[in-house]
Model the fold of this input.
Amino acid sequence: MPNPPGDPTARPDTDGPETGSPDTDGSDTRRPDAGGPDPVALYRTIRLIRRFEERCVALVKAGEIVGGIHPYIGQEAVAAGVCAALRPDDLITSTHRGHGHVLAKGADPDRMTAELMGRTTGLNKGRGGSMHAADVGLGILGANGIVGAGAPIATGAAWAAVRAGADRVAVSFFGDGAVSQGVVLESFNLASLWRLPVLFVCENNGYSSTATVEDMVAGSIPGRAAAFGIPAATVDGMDAEAVFAATRECVERARQGGGPAFLECRTYRFDAHHTWEHRSFVRYRTQEQVEEGRRRDPMDIQGARIAEEDRARVDDEVEAILDAAVRFARDSPKPDPSEALDFLYATGLRPRAGVTTSA
Amino acid sequence: MPKLGYLTALTRALSDELARDPDVCVFGEDIRVGVANVTKGLVQRFGPERIVDTPLSEQAFTSFATGAALSGHRPVIEFQIPSLMFLVFEQIANQAHKFSLMTGGQAKVPVTYLVPGSGSRTGWAGQHSDQPYSLFAHVGLKTVVPSSPADAYGLLVSAIRDDDPVVVLTPAASSMSFQSVNLDELAPLPLGVGHVARSGTDVTVVAVGHFVGQAVEVAEELADEVSVEVFDPRTVYPFDWHGLAESVNRTGRLVVIDDSNRFCGLGAEVVAAAAEEMRLVAPPRRITRPDGAVLPFALELDRAAQPHRDQLVTAIQQVCKENR
Done:
């Protein structure tokens, strides 16, 4: 495993005053020039995502979030570690299981919750929902409903960064299922050929929906990137600091013109592929397997690295943030049905309605 | 007046926009050499950073352009074969087209997808002869099919400048056409606005792409027996319903000649809209490819599956005989 986290005792004291939750500027987690990650800030991001997701699952059960979600629970260290190594002007593309990435990159939990609940105050004004949450101003080019679809988009955004003479990077998150998508492999080729500043982050959570990696992936996951000449490594995706360290190395190289990189983050999906599993009888892993997979919890791993009182304080702060977010979403207006076709075209073009106007 | 070739008009539009706007760039296969005769010379003038030859990875470079567009570029992608549009339907219809709505207006994706030589190219058989404009219209992509060199120039320029993704399908059958034009008068043409290519009073013929010229010829041939108006929508989607209604409400009769497959094709939509909303005094007619057509290779079979001007003559005569 490359880039083991440094000696915690050698880490500079970063337990200073919190500069804000990740929903504001997240500056406490984005200090690529500092000696290492802020362990409290990393814990805070993990905790925020964990509790956000648990609340969302409850809101799905209560019918307040329609359509369900793909819970990110168990994988939080990947989003937290990667995004802590990014700058605000860096870009990400996310996945159907994207809440963690969107929050870790700095999206406002209020507006994220409102989006999932279909309110006009949502990140996407209620037009995207769970699978399309985006905040373009924060460099979040969107969660995406098609597996692997973000890889070429991030690669093109990285090309644009080079063209602009900027040293920003693009990160494409995807799961283990995406490594069997042709468009992802094509993107590896483009990124390597043109030495683009893009980091491909594969979250190997063990399952593409219900199928295991062993049953679906020939060869190795990092081997696919390596075949295109992309430096590829596997990292402990349950350890946010390990993810951070590996990401920072890749990102710094990319900023200096060193081209793309690939990280396989080994993690585990604690909850369902999608919340419909909570009501269906899909069985593809045993209770024992789930318990084994959950044995290492990224929240506990990072939580054990910080002082008890910090952990308690962060936990309280996160609950307050999420209480406020749910309240904000519930109090926000639902969209007017007459606006169903708003934003269909960037130019404001209005298409015909579904019935004839003279009917 | 100088003669402007159809493909030269496309080159001129690309060149003018590349010169005017540094955010414009071109992606595609063999475009530096200019195999499709549209991008020849661009790399010498604008450099390899803006005229980018891609590997044969249509799906990746189509969404790659989306990523570049989300970062402020205005990419044009050239596709050598119309059927490649099926391969990249996900990237166009399901990604680029949906970003504006799905993000609640945060994102725009100004990419132009240019297929010079769409439709049948004699002898190119099943997988090189599609004319997929109805497919893109169905999912809501802005889609233009220019019928003349001047239109090709004006519509491609507007497509590149538009803030939404636009599909530009230029008919293979038009590729060798020429037009006498004053080059100084070439100008952008607005998307979504059709025009009357020939005025008439008895029947409206809606023709798309290379059929516009053929319809005008047919109209001249039939001038002694019937007064034919030819309406060229220029943009397949959004369709200029106002312009069409103005014509059909005057003539009361409608024929559509459309290089789509019949089922759910543009012709079906035009006829349905006219039946619902316009004044028709006789049942309308449409001339199309057959339902679900796959163009066969042999010349006789290929021709049999394509709309033909003789069918247009018959349809016009039939529609003008009939009354409701």
